Structure formats: structure tokens, C-alpha cells
Amino acid sequence: MIFSKDSWKEIFDTIKKNKLRTFLSGFTVAIGIFIFIVLFGFGNGLQNSFSQFFVDDKVNTIRIYPSSTTLPYRGYESGRRIEFTNQDLIEIKEKFNSEVEDIVVRNTFYNQIKYKDKSNQYQVRAVSPGHKEAENTILMSGRYFHEGDIENRKKYAVIGRLVAQDLFEGKDPIGEYIFGSDHSWRVIGVFQDEGGDREERMLYVPYTAMQEIQKNSDKINQMIVIYNSEMTYDESLLLEKELEVYLKNKKTISPDDNRGVYISNTGEDLEDSKDFASILKIVVTFIGIGTLIAGIIGISNIMVFVVKERTKELGIRKAIGATPNSIILMILQESIFITTISGYAGLITGIITLKIIGNNLQEKYFISNPYINSGDALFATLILIFFGALAGYLPARKAANIKPIIALRDK
Amino acid sequence: MIEIKDLNKSYVMGKNSLHVLKGINLKINEGELVAIMGSSGSGKSTLLNIIGMLDNYDSGAYQLDKVPIKDLDETKAAKYRNKFLGFVFQSFNLINYKTAIENIALPLYYQGIASKERQKIALDYLDKVGLKDWSGHLPSELSGGQKQRVAIARALASKPKVLLADEPTGALDSKTSDEVMELIIQINKEGKTILVVTHEQEVANMCNRIITLKDGVIMTDIKSK
Known about the structure:
The complex is a heterodimer of chains A (about 400) and B (about 220).
Chain A: H1 5-17, H2 19-54, E1 61-66, E2 84-85, H3 86-95, E3 100-115, E4 118-127, H4 131-135, E5 138-142, H5 147-151, E6 156-160, H6 161-168, E7 177-180, E8 183-192, H7 197-200, E9 202-206, H8 207-213, E10 219-220, E11 222-227, H9 233-250, E12 261-265, H10 266-309, H11 311-319, H12 324-357, H13 362-365, H14 374-401, H15 404-409
Parallel strand pairs in A: 4-9, 6-8
Antiparallel strand pairs in A: 1-11, 1-12, 2-10, 3-4, 3-11, 5-8, 6-9, 7-8
Helix pairs in contact in A: 2-10, 2-12, 2-14, 10-14, 12-14
Chain B: E1 2-13, E2 16-28, E3 33-37, H1 44-51, E4 59-64, E5 67-68, H2 74-84, E6 85-88, H3 100-110, H4 115-128, H5 144-157, E7 162-166, H6 174-189, E8 193-197, H7 201-205, E9 209-214, E10 217-223
Parallel strand pairs in B: 3-8, 3-9, 6-7, 7-8
Antiparallel strand pairs in B: 1-2, 1-4, 4-5, 9-10
């Protein structure tokens, strides 16, 4: 009799004829699940935005910038400007050959760039081919530089997506010549960058070509060391230290001088961002659990109220022959049925809402592509169904075991 | 049908104990229509509740249709109630969201009778109490007398050995009371054993045996016919 067609019929009947009660308990569950999914999805969306910000540049890099000394050392006065040259680059590469994949050059300039009657001020980075990897530059068309371009000091340019948009206005820039620093540069590629607009309003040129037009300078402003990706964070710190000692010795800088050469390890950023991401994860989980608890309390209240309201009816049922077990089963079956249906409704609505929101909140609220994986969503729904059933079971058991005479007296 | 020997019942309220039934001895045969009278506090409702297995007793013996009834758990009590007893209450106690016919069919549901059969039996009993045309009405759409007749039909539907009525006319005017009592008498004439708890002499006079309780003991036990 317990799960027979008849008992279902009895339950559908009760549900149909107690619409407000059914609606209240169903709505509580649906809204609980809905809010959980939307909030949890937003949390995940925040994490998405966060990781997008930080995966822009390659992380296993050490940046080296020369600057001025602040301490006198071995006969040199303080305030001496330190500079790297192409020769330094070759020597460092040889010295750290085993730990380092590549050492990339980046010399930064600002130039007026012209194409026909259009012109604008842009950042120009004079780089070596490895810069593409270090910066996670994504080519949209054409190609990047190769070693041959560097050796032959080719006056080539790879331009940012927005530069192409500004100057070429939809025309294909590949093969065209742009004008800057009193020279013509042939556009060989267009790139995009996940780092945002600023990163796409730039041009790359071979550093040797730039050095040539600047009176055959051999100066290097910034070096980016790409170390082996298998290295641990601690190993990379060690390499950073070795580099510092080597460079300070090479350039005759006091070991105690904090300036002269500045070294920064993006591995540190990675560690920081990992910490931040894990805190974000904790916050999101906390919000999720909080919402779920609020939902559980909501459905518990409703269930207690529903059973209380039905005390007299249950007394009547008992007087005409319902056993306590049949009463408990009836209430459980009913509450599980309602919570399952409405939980599922809340689940679907929540997921659809997240889908509709999609990337609409990305610009203003940093929530990109909010989602919830089906495991989490299903788990939350099951939890609410379980606690809904439990919250129904406890008062139902009590109601089923009180004497019908007491239940009947209850007005 | 009903045999009660030296039945005692006390209610404990905090430190005080209230001795409600003080050694009741009673034998009711099949087919009798018995009125139990007494002022409030005399113990008449308690006696009916014990007979109806809605309440248990402290000492003594109670046999219903030769089955000893003592310290039943709720599950067993529910089964016995369903099998042996039909209840009629002063406040009708119909389930308010179920129609007349659904209310009558409910005890049959708990007996495990199939849906179609239930409908048929319920309609028969509804017809018996003269409310065949009201089968689809909710209790709120029925008059007091009609509600009580539905309640009687419900009590009869499970074919009980004994019908227990607790102040069945208590909430009705005198004309409707008479109609309900006539129905009860008619059912009794068909052979059903019926106990009616009442404080109205008029109602009691319609029964063929009147038991009067006072302070937990039987004062008089008069068979009128």
C-alpha cells in the first residue's frame, strides 16, 4: 500500500486541494535553490574574471630592469646609471643556459605612428622573438618575428588590434607600410592580448632594427628571463638570487645596494594570486553554505507549520484507521514530492538565469561567464530535499504518535 | 459485544491525580442502543474514549468482540479501530478539503480497498443517509445536520462492529437532532451495536438502555424496553 498508485492518488489529491500550502513549501525550496545557484554561479564568475586578469602574461618569468645605483662601490660614485648591452645578454644566456629557456629583450618607446593621413601616439616595444611567449601575445593574422628578422635588423612591425583599427579602419594592414621614428616599417602581423585594451594599443618591432636607427645603440632596457616551467617556486627564487648576485658583480654594484638592478619574479605574483583565488573560493563556498542553511531553515519552518496545521486532520485519519506509519509516510511522500519538483524547477530556473546573464555583468561587476557545475547544483538540491523531508518527518512522527483524542481536541 | 470489568482510569496532572473512572463494570450485547449519560466530569467521555481505543486505561479488563483490548500500541489500536469501530463526533470531524464522498471513502482507503470499490461503497452509504445528491460537496457547503449524516455514513462505511457517538447532536438544533437520532435508531434496527454519549435526556430516551455515570461510577443502568 505504501507506494501504491492509490497512495500517490491520495497525495495528488491532497496537493491539489491545498494549493496555498503546496505553493508555500514548494516556493521556499525553489527560491532557496534558485538563490543558491545564482549566488554560487556569480562566485564562480568572479573567479573566472580573476583568473583572466592573471593569466595574461606568462608566469614563469623574471624581469630585470637596470636603474641607478644608490651606494658608492669600488671607486664608483653612487647615482651611476646601469645599462645592459647586447653583449651582456649573450653572456647571461651562456651563464644560465641550463635553467633558462630564453631571455627576452624589451625596449620601450613612445612614437608617433603614421599611416597615410592617420597618425597617433603609440607605445612601441622593441623586442626579441621570445617576447611573444613571455607576453602571451595572440596573433590574429600574419606572423611574429623570427631570429632571422633580428639578425637582419628587418624593419618589420607587428601591430595591436586597436592600432590596426585606428590606422587602417578595417583595411587589411598586412604588407602595408607605416611610418615612425623617421623610418618606414612593414606590417607583418596583427595581434590581440587578453591583458585588455592598453595591451592592444601597441606595436612590436625587432629590437635590433630599433637599435640600428638609434645610432647603432646596443642598449637593452629590460630583460625578461623565461625559466624552465618545471622549476618550483622555491627554485625560481633561488635563480632570482643567483641572477642578482651575478648581475651586481658583473656591473660592479654593491651587494648591499637595493637599486642598480631591479629584479622581479612573476612567480611571486602567481603565489599572491593563488592565495587570493583560494580566499575567493572560501568566500564563495561560505556564501553557498549560508544560502543553503537559510533555505533549510525556510523549508523546516514551512514543514513544521504544515504538520501543525494538519494535526486535527491527522487525528481524524487516525480515528478512522490510519496507522502512525501510514501518516508519517504520507507526509514524507508528499513533502519529498513537492520539494523534488520545486527543487528541480528552482535548479532549472537558476541555471537558465546564469545562462542568460552570461557575460553581461563582465564589464561592470567583474562576473564573467557565471556557472555552477551540475554536481554542486544537484548536491544542493538533494540537501534541501533531504532536510525538507527531515523537517517534515520530525513533527510528522510526533503528530502520528499523539493520541487521536488529543489531536481531535486541537481546534 | 463489549465486556468491561472493574475498569479504572486516572489522569495525572502534576502532583495531583484525578481518578476519573472508579471500577466500571459493564456488558453490552450485540444490537443494543445504549445511551451513556452524566454531567460533565462524570467520566462518560473518558469511558467512550477507552471503548473507542482513543485512550487507554490503568487497571481492569476490556474485551471487544471477545478480543482483549489492553495497552495497544498506536499501530495496533489504529487497525482495531478500523476493523471494529466507527466514530461520530460532536464537531463532525470531517476533513475539510475532501468532498462528502471522499470523506466516506477514507476509512476504506485505510482498509486497502481498491479505488473503484471505495467509490461504490461510499456512494451506497451516502444514499443510505439520504445525501446521494451531495456527494461532490465539501463539508463547508453542507449544513450541520448534513455534516453529521456524512460523518455517520463514514463511520458505517468500514462496517464496524460498534458505532460510537460522542454527543452526536450536541452541535445541532432540536429538529436536526431528531433527524440524526432517527437515522441512528434506524441503523440500530438493522442490527448495529451503538453507544451514544449525551447529556440530553430527550436523546437518551430514544435509546433502549440508559447508563448514568456520576463521579466515575455507574449510578443507574436502566433498560427501557
